[in-house]
Amino acid sequence: MRITGGNAARRILKVPRGLDVRPTPDLVKQAIFNSLGARVEGARVLELFAGSGALSLECLSRGAASALCIEKSHKHAAFIQQNAAAISGANLHVRTQDVFTALSQLAQNGEAFDLILADPPYGEKNIGRRSESFAQQLLDDKNLPVILAPGGRFVLGHTRRDTLELVAPWGEVKMLKHGDTIMRFLEI
Hints:
Helix content: 25-40%
Structural class: alpha/beta
Largest sheet: 7 strands, mixed
Order of helices and strands: HEHEHEHEHHEEE
Strand order of the largest sheet: 3-2-1-4-5-7-6
Number of helices: 6
Low-confidence stretches: none
Strand content: 25-35%
């Protein structure tokens, strides 16, 4: 896994061993950032279910002003810190806590982000019933729209087999499909 663009392009990122982390593939990252274009420059970025922090580090490499990673695992958070240390001037902060607790705290503190990225662990196949996946829980969370800055964008990854219900106030701007991965670009 590597950074695909910007001033740290081709830098290799360390990823925890095992099946606990499913990093966003490089081709999917390239497609995401090609779609976001100049929107990343100067952005305040929030990455949820950060894993290795690859999406935040990609943003910082491409000119984002700052990034906050939320990751529940202390082990994975340590990898994010190691990866950030390898990039000079990376304005990256890591919070080791549950994503939904963090969202509530960020909303209470009046935080706002221009770009929110989430590629959470995939949910189960859910034909004939409403999804219970982390992706659906993010869409349903009342705090997430509160912390998205005006004109901001929420990029959400999930698997094809996890059929999500898009709820108000979210509107879909774009959808990318790559293999089993779907990336949705959402606005309020």
